[in-house]
Amino acid sequence: MRVSVIGHSAFTLAMFGLMWAVQVIIYPQFRSVDSADFAAYVADHGTRITIALALLAPAEIVFAAWLWLDTPAALNRTAVFVSGALLALGWIATATWFGPLHGKLQGEYNLDQINQLIATNWLRTALWSARAGFACWFLAQLLDDPQ
User: Fold this and answer.
1) CA atoms of 98 and 22, how far apart (whole Å)
2) pTM summary value
3) Which sequence spans correspond to the domains of the chain?
4) What is the 3-state secondary structure (H, E, C) of 65-118?
5) Smallest Cα–Cα separation from 134: which of 77, 53, 51?
6) Confidence (pLDDT) at 144
């Protein structure tokens, strides 16, 4: 059971770091790309971010499910559920809003769409920040548990 908490925390914190890097570094850099190079830049970003997400996201989802299905006694099961619900909300938002918005960016440089992406992506940043808080709390509970 300790493995589920440690794995969950590790991959959640990795996603938390990636979300913050995307929010404060990567997306704002879209504004600085020359319009003639923008389509290629966004395509390259899509390829590279997909590789990172393909490594982190499935592991985070698996560990979140494991944690829910086999919650250690030291953890609050409601908190584990809420943390998992935040994960589901993040991926639902990605599929229904952010994926299509990224699709719109595949065309010509559009500063309004870039600004919309940056402004609305704070939702995902907040969701993964909350998940990171839960992950740290779960680790602290695990460390406090004498078993």
Assistant:
1) 13
2) 0.93
3) 2-144
4) HHHHHCCCCCCCHHHHHHHHHHHHHHHHHHHHHHHHHHHHHCCCCCHHHHHHHH
5) 77
6) 85
